[in-house]
Amino acid sequence: MSTNEINESGICLKRCDGKNEDFVENCRLLDEDLERRVGKVIQRDKYTEFNQLDQIKEAVVAYSDGVVAGAGAMREYKYCDISNATELKRLFVRPGNQGKGIGTKIVTELIEWAREKGYEYMILETGELLKESVHVYKKLGFEVIDNYGPYEGMTDSLCMMKKL
After folding, report:
1. What is the β-pairing status of strands 85-93 and 121-126?
2. Cα–Cα distances in Å, from 57 out to 3, 84, 113, 135, 155?
3. pLDDT per residue over 43-56, tens digit each?
4. What pTM was computed for the model?
5. Alpha-carbon distance 112 to 122, whole Å?
């Protein structure tokens, strides 16, 4: 799907960067959601430094009838054994829009953009407690790998990779 193309389900995807106001607000809502869902189980502050938006140059915001439905991003990743990789970051579909395939559409757009930029792999970190996310990633061909880089030794983390 190209930028701003509306598909059959009325979803519009917009490519932008990590400074886009809709993307930034979506990340704030993601953090609130994660705190509510897993904050009592895991120590989330250890992930803060890995979720900064200042290094995000590629983001996708999904709109449903002109209203933000979700967003996600990628950033170049050079700190593991995998060369020519981009890391999927900050994916969140807002309540009321979940279960409609919007997360799949956002990730698919990011995969296409990563291919356009010449990346060979997309990696990501999530958590086993986030079963819906893990399901979407597996459906899109991501496979579980050993925890990479900053997530090595973090038992709450689940890392995945897809060859593009």
Report:
1. parallel
2. 15, 16, 12, 26, 29
3. 545 444 455 566 78
4. 0.86
5. 11
